[in-house]
Amino acid sequence: QSVLTQPPSASGTPGQRVTISCSGSNSNIGSYYVYWYQQLPGTAPRLLIYRDNQRPSGVPDRFSGSKSGTSASLAISALRSEDDADYYCAAWDDSLSGVVFGGGTKLTVL
Amino acid sequence: QVQLVESGGGVVQPGGSLRLSCAASGFKFSDYGMHWVRQAPGKGLEWVAFIQSGGNKYYTDSVKGRFTISRDNSKNTVFLQMNSLRAEDTAVYFCAKDPRPTVTTITGWFDPWGQGTLVTVSS
Predict the structure, then answer these.
(1) Interface residue A63 vs chain B (CB under 8 A)
(2) Which of B85, B93, B44 is nearest to A100 (CA)?
(3) Residue B109 to residue A45, Cβ atoms within 8 A
(4) 3-class DSSP assignment, residue A69
(5) A101 near B46, Cβ under 8 Å?
(6) What is the residue-level pLDDT of chain B in tens, covering all 123 positions?
(7) Chain B residue at shortest CA distance from A91
(8) How far apart are CA B51 and CA B65, in angstroms?
(9) Shortest Cα distance from B55 to chain A (angstroms)?
C-alpha cells in the first residue's frame, strides 16, 4: 500500500486528454512539492514535472502538472502512442522522513 | 551530458552482502547529492537512500542498519553497501542525481536516473 494513491490504470485514444491523480496528506503533498515521472517499458524513470507544475527542458508542453490541497494531477493532452507508459508521483513526507511514491498508473493508449 | 552508470548487481543468498556502484560523469559530482531508488519486479518505485554533497546520509526505515550509502568524490562514484540481504530486497536499483547543488533538504526530485542494476536475493 503506497503512501500516495494513484489509480492503477488509465487509458485514452490518440488526440485525447487524460488526467492521472495522486492523493496524499498534509505530511506530504499538502506541505511539499510534487514530482512526476514517466517510465517506458524496460527503461529507467524520466522526470516529467518538478515543483508541482514545472516542465524540464525537453518535456513536451502536452504534459502539465497541478496541485490543490493534498492532491495533485498530471494531465497529458493530445495523447500519442509513445505516451503508453507507467507514471509515478513523488513527494517528501515529513511524518516518515523519506520520499514517498505513488503506486504508479499504467497509461494505455488505445 | 550527465551520465550515471550502475554496476555490481547480481544474485546473492539471503543474509549475504553486495556492493553497488554508480559512476557519474558530465557534472561536478562533489557538488551534488545522490540517491538510490529501487523497484521490485513488477512493482512501483521505492526511495532507498540519499547522501548529501557534504556527506550526510539518510535512509528509508526498511534498510536502516543494513545498507550504507557512501561516495568517493575523487572517483565520481556513489556506493550502496547492502548487508543482511533479504528476499524483499530483490529489485532493480537505480542511482539518481539531485539536480540542486549543495542542498541539505531532500525532495522527490531525481534527475537524471541511471539505467539500473538488478539485485536478486535468493537461495
Answers:
(1) no
(2) B44
(3) no
(4) coil
(5) yes
(6) 999 999 999 999 999 999 999 999 999 999 999 999 999 999 999 999 999 999 999 999 999 999 999 999 999 999 999 999 999 999 999 999 999 998 888 999 999 999 999 999 999
(7) B108
(8) 15
(9) 17
